[in-house]
Amino acid sequence: MKNTFRLMCAVAFVVASISAISPAVRADILEQVLVKVNGEIFTKTELETRQVLVLRQKGQPMDLKGEAGAAQLRKALDEVTPQIIVDVVDEMLLVQRGKELGYKLSDEQFKTAVDNIKKDNKIETEEQFQTALKQENMTMADLRRNFERQMIRSRVEQNEVLGKVGITEDEARKYYQAHLNEFTAPPAVTLREILVAVPADPKGMNVAQDDAAKAKADVIHARAVGPGGAGSGESFEKLAADLSDAPSHANAGLIGPISAKDLSPEFQKLIEAMKPGDVSQPIRTPRGYQILKLETTTGAQTMTFEQARDQISDHVLGGKRQQEFLKLLAKLRAEASIEFKNADIKKAYEQGLEAQKQTVS
Predict the structure, then answer these.
(1) Which of 100, 212, 320, 346 is the most exposed place for a label (fewest CB within 10 A)?
(2) Residue 32, SS3?
């Protein structure tokens, strides 16, 4: 089974390192109940579990040995705990709201969820599934409780938030006119390249190697443009496939389309002076000598309102949904009885709320 529900054993280290942990976390170890939300409790063990999961998800490598390790752990926990406490309280409020509305997970919904887990993790028998649950320190009751909370929260967000927001034609058109740059693709070019590489020399430039590469590039260029540079030369695509040292030789030297703004100023100036079909002189680059052929150019292209309609809806509705969701949470918080059993955990909660406000702003 994948690590969907795996809990790390590092919780034991968190508890054992009480003297090395910040006051906020030290307090949670001494207190069994950290906060009550409308009578529902959140405990130190649940906090430790969430802290471990968040740190693991962040993928923070930590050496937990000695004073330096303790300081690193303390810093990491101080960073993640405020948001954890805010998320916990909000989740409890949303689930409680859903239960007031009568939402619950049916047996059929739970069976479907379990079947999906088995399929995703290639678990073929019930015995394998029970063994996997045991390895994750979970029971079927734990699993069902987790699914139900997720489902209830999703239903509340769907009915209390998503179902209450929409976008009018006038709003969509105003957004489109005010944000045309979001729907405009910059000028782009499609090129083909031939690279004659100059091997890197740790002692500095090797003049002989550079001269040899330049001479080879000049010969290839002459073959590409033909006698007198009249454009009657050999196939650039074939020359690129046969002679280029660039990885693009596998695609006959094709590179792009590339946004013009992503080109260096020197290359932009070079391309501006070319027209489709033109072949550049060999250009010295950090990789060696590069010969370019301009295939196509496209100017800035702006999507029509109809083409951009779906993106406009995503932008506008996303903002509206966030505002409506925050309004719902503010209402639930104002109406709730939130009782902190520890001053440091309360402070972490307030820090998390302030960070949330700043992020939204």
Answers:
(1) 100
(2) coil
